[in-house]
Amino acid sequence: MNTDWQAIRFTVNGVSCTVHAPPMKRLLDVLREDLHLTGTKEGCGEGECGSCSVRMNGDLVNSCLVPVLQAEGAEIQTVEGLSLDGELSVLQEAFLQHGGAQCGICTPGMLMAAAQLLTRTPHPTTAEIREALAGNLCRCTGFMGIFASVAAAAEAQAAAPAAETARHAR
Amino acid sequence: MIAPGGLDAVLELLAREPGAWTPIAGGTELMVAFAAGRLAAPKLVSLWNIPALRFIETGAGSAAIGAASTFLDLRAHAVLAAKLPLLVKAASWIGSIANQSRATLGGNLVNGSPAADSSPALLVYDAEVELISVRGRRRIPYAEFHTGYKRNALATDELLYAVHLPCRFTRHKQYIRKVGARRAMAVAKAALAATALLRDGVVGEIRLAAASVAPVPTRLYQAEAALAGRPITRQTVQAAREALLAEVRPIDDIRSTAEYRRRVTANLLEEFLLELRREGSRP
Amino acid sequence: MSSSATTRIVGAPVPRKEGADKLRGCARYVDDIAPEGAWHGLTVRSAIPRGIIRSIAFDPAIDWSQFAVVTAADIPGQNCIQLIVADQPCLAAGRVNHCEEAILLLAHPDKHKLREAAAGVRIDYDPLPPVFTIEESERQETIVWGEDNLLKSFLLEKGDVDSVWERAAHIVTGEYRTGAQEHLYIENQGMAAEYGAEGSVKVWGSMQCPYYVVRSLCRVFGLPEDKVRVIQTETGGAFGGKEDYPSVVGCHAALLAMKSGHPVKLIYDRMEDLASTTKRHPSRVRHRTALDRDGKLLAMEIDLATDGGAYSTLSSTVLSRATLHAPGPYLCPNVRVRARSWATNNVPYGAFRGFGAPQVIFAMERHMDEIAAALGFDPVELRRRNFLHHGDANATGQLMREPMILDQLLDRALKESGYYAKRTRFARENATSPIKRGMGMAAYYHGSGFTGSGEVYLNSLAGVDVTPNGKVRVLASNTEFGQGTNTILTQIAAEALGIGYEDVLMAAPDTGIVPNSGPTVASRTSMVVGRLIERASAGLVRLLREHAGLGERYTSAEFFLACERCRAVLGQVKSLCRYEPPPGISWDDETYHGAAYPAYAWAIQVAQVAVDTVTCSAEVEEFWAVQEVGRVIHPVLAAGQIEGGIAQGIGYALYEKVILENGRMANSQMTNYIMPTAEDVPPIHVYFEEIPYRYGGFGAKGLGELPHDGPAPAILNAIRDAAGVAINAIPLLPEELFAELVAHMPAGEPAAL
Questions:
Q1: How close is the nearest chain A Cα to the Cα of B94, in Å?
Q2: Residue C506 contacts by C-beta under 8 Å, 6 or more apart in sequence?
């Protein structure tokens, strides 16, 4: 394995950064260890639980399965990029009100999957919500509170679309 | 790992040191192996962000899909959805959205799992695969790509370049179903894809393919032969079931049992045949 | 006495206390903290289920001077994890009794160096014959624990069972089995530790019960309690899996910190967590039941056995709760429950939501449907005919003194689910469909709080104080791990103090700060600790009236001004309360007679199931849960507990199988230990009926475990209704259903034509 450290550049939540890391270092570890963005969680390390979900160039990815070299030049959004100036986004607020978060460990990944869904499908059906979140395992809620949160966020977002779209695009 | 960034550079690397480099695309298989310390390959060459490998072209009678196209690319393509619905359905089975945004069609095939989600659809669509190296390109039937468990027809300097599919199945009755441990995030315990024509109650052209019943994804030629040219009756269904049971070789493993896989694959075939008899193929 | 009158904050859907931090991603779990100069730890584990450790050798190619290496010989105090019986070593010394038993610990500044080093530790064993099943253990041919393999036994008797069999109109027998279940909290086990040069230990991490960890640390390090400090970090799910096991991880991390001279983080990865930590006890329950002509219960004889694994952990208390819940919510004059927990060489089983009740309620409620079938009764009516009512005595002879509305819950469940109309429709449709649908139910109660005299022994202390910057702090060692402790307890304090929800915070879950209000287990937090906080808050108000002239009516601002006047007089503003049992409650540990629990939560669950005869798989299509849990403190959190418990119960019934091969979990990954995803959990309908309980926090009873007890029997009863197959074992995976449905038919034979 070529483990020579490399300088890798990308932006996280709109901020450009350069990390020096082995190319096979997981994006998850780069976010958590090099950039101290510990909101992104590790649950399984094999792409099954979705706790490490982030958005990369507008796609939802499991950051535990992304070698950081493949993030070169990418725009990455993590849970820390969802709220603006400390204020909860419509989606986060909906999770707070509708029981979308219990223990909170799946929550950052769940939020990213939900944000991805609402960006692509602003008015999702229940079936679409279920499919969009199927890669994010939650052991606390039985998913009901999460579905309700996402549906409520979609509704609230329809009422005030511009600000949210701008936020998700960051 | 290195990321040469262009197809030619990757091919030159593979030609220079044949067998030394393992291509990595979306990493959904190899990163798991890497993290678990199971990755034998000393050197990885990245195929991510190589536009020459990530394309979908659809013409009048065929489609070509670049090997580094992701399953989300496939799902988002309206023409594929219309002309090759089984493949697009299979794409939706891959893991989760986060997996589909990284996992590639080529990766699914080269990984060579007998349970690969995309394989049964490709087999019943008579797909061909195009392999590329500095020596040039060649096309072989996909049915000949897998040469054994986790082995394939790629030479040490070759890459899987594209999958070619004839788009001539719109009048066929098409069927695909996967049986997994749950509705999402599941490895197929069994899966069956089928395309067939029914004329005057008689089965015409028919293709059947299954996953997880043999060391490689498999066309079910014996079952096809038991049906071609025959009406769908209790007797032909029984004959087809028996032919299928005789030609599949599933195993007991941590995910299921051989007996379950055999019987359920036969049940899927029967379900398809009942649909075919009820609905026919399109005129 | 708690009031059921109008409340401002109790019963309102206030925002979860720590919710915003979790949603921003800034809540700090143990793996998110990076102590200055911390090393990383790894555990080297047994490769065999049972044997003598012959030798431990270290690969000379590795520079071991760079590592901290801890073995049992490094333990300064006693080599045991302090739970009920101190039979489990902290680190195996001389012999191992299960696969993955911790033998040796390593630490290094670079966590990536650890795996290779672990592979460089060669442990040789002289294997001993292992025991893996209840049947092998109870045969007592190979003794693997104590003198007889028996970890614990109980006998519960009411009336005279043996006098009934001859005169019974019907006798129905059945055997029921449940498998192990993994908690699958999404945050793996993990702890960080510091060892002070002056001989003190500080541990922080993911846990339910900080004071349990304190007790084990004291024992392992030979330290007094004041030298040991345990702090819970944000905890990403627990479900009982972080009741007992964190004591192991905490001791290990602290030993490594002592040996290395650095703080140490010991974070399990998923495979390690699945393979080596506790799971739900597998069980075998045999029922023999006598009934009269009218379907009234005459006698129940229940033989209960659990697999406890290699060490006793909490097997005795799990068995106790199982014993007490085994006869269900039914009136029966003659009952005998004989219960035994057997040692094996499996990884020790431990606490898991429900704590023995899901196992025995599965058996009881499946058995009720088999009785109904044998007698030709409607399963609903059979249950209704035998329900306990107000004034009846249950199996331990406890008079049901509180109001009971089981019939009302049943009526509601039948109505909301459309039970009878659906059964009729499905019976018609099933005849011609490859999908067979059915309805099934389960009726049960779940005791709130510790069993019997447990709460008296715990002697919990909790309360509130006021900080100089104008916030009330709830002082309790009860922890938040998703279920809502922070929110519920601060709601109760704010309500009782007459101030705003935002005026009240939880004190840090740090044994250096909060008193021991008992463990966060056994559906006790809202009822028992909630009541303590309510009483302590009332005490604080009295104090402020007495010493600071607080008026009858006051604003938050006036309240905090009074607090400062009080502080000036007394030096602090604090009120603590100790547990007092409700009056008239008595329990006899010897005879297992009396009031096992001060209060019970009651539930009826109904499952609608579809069995696909093509794939031989069963799916839950819809689920209804009607329950009486006393006062609901927070409607959204309460519903979330019910929904989450049901989803976990659905997993228990149909998806989650721990595959053991020679005592080792063969499917120790999330890709092959299958929990239901967002696409698998059906719509769940939750209904509460509220009867405030006088001795619970603002009328609350226990709630957290209740929902997990019912799904498995309701689902398998629905499968019986759908497909006519009586299946008495869970998990019921398609491969097993296949065996029941079609294995006797020739495979070549068309199924449906």
A1: 10
A2: C17, C473, C474, C476, C480, C485, C486, C489, C490
Residues of chain A with CATH 3.10.20.30: 6-81
Give contacts of A134 with chain B, Cβ < 8 Å.
96-97, 183-185
Q: Which subunits sit against A, judged by 3+ Cβ pairs under 8 A? A: B, C
Query: What's the whole-number mean pLDDT along residues C124-149?
Result: 98
pLDDT for C498 beyond 80 = yes
% of chain C surpassing 90 pLDDT = 96
Which domains, and CATH codes, for chain B? 7-166 (3.30.465.10), 173-280 (3.30.390.50)
Instruction: Select the CATH number that applies to the domain covering A6-81 from these four: 2.60.40.1580, 3.10.20.30, 3.40.50.300, 3.60.15.10.
Output: 3.10.20.30
Question: Residues C678-703: pLDDT tens digits?
Answer: 999 999 999 999 999 999 999 999 99
Q: Give the integer Cα–Cα distance in Å for B229 and B224.
A: 10
Nearest Cα of chain A lies from the Cα of C647 at a distance, in angstroms, of 5
Residue C200: strand pairing partners: C196
Please state which architecture CATH assigns to domain A83-169: Orthogonal Bundle (1.10)
Peptide bond into A108 cis (omega under 30): no
CATH architecture of C4-28+460-578: 2-Layer Sandwich (3.30)
From A82, A108, A142, residue closest to C646, measured CB to CB: A142
Which of A28, A54, A65 to substitute to test the interface with B, most B CBs within 10 Å?
A: A65
- Domain at C283-451+592-743, CATH class: alpha beta
Suggest the residue from A52, A76, A143, A147 to mutate for an interface test with chain C (most C CBs closer than 10 A): A143
Q: Do C680 and B183 touch (CB under 8 A)?
A: yes
Q: What is the pLDDT of residue C84?
A: 86
Q: Which residues of A touch C238 (CB under 8 A)?
A: 103
Reported pTM: 0.97
Contact B274 C679 (CB under 8 A): no
* pLDDT 10s digits, B132-170: 999 999 999 999 999 999 999 999 999 999 999 999 999
Taking only the tens place, the pLDDT of each residue in C412-427 is 999 999 999 999 999 9
Cβ C456 vs Cβ C481: under 8 Å = no
A170 has pLDDT over 50:
no
The answer to whether C753 contacts chain B (CB < 8 Å) is yes
Task: Report the pLDDT value the prediction gives residue A159, as an integer from 0 to 100.
Answer: 87
B220 DSSP 8-state letter:
-
The CA distances from residue C596 to C146, C154, C320, C393, C398, in Å, are: 28, 14, 10, 12, 7
B-proximal residues of A, 4-33, CB under 8 Å: 23-24, 26
Model-level ipTM above the cut of 0.90:
yes
* Nearest CA distance, A132 vs chain B (angstrom): 6
Contact C250, C205 (CB under 8 A): yes
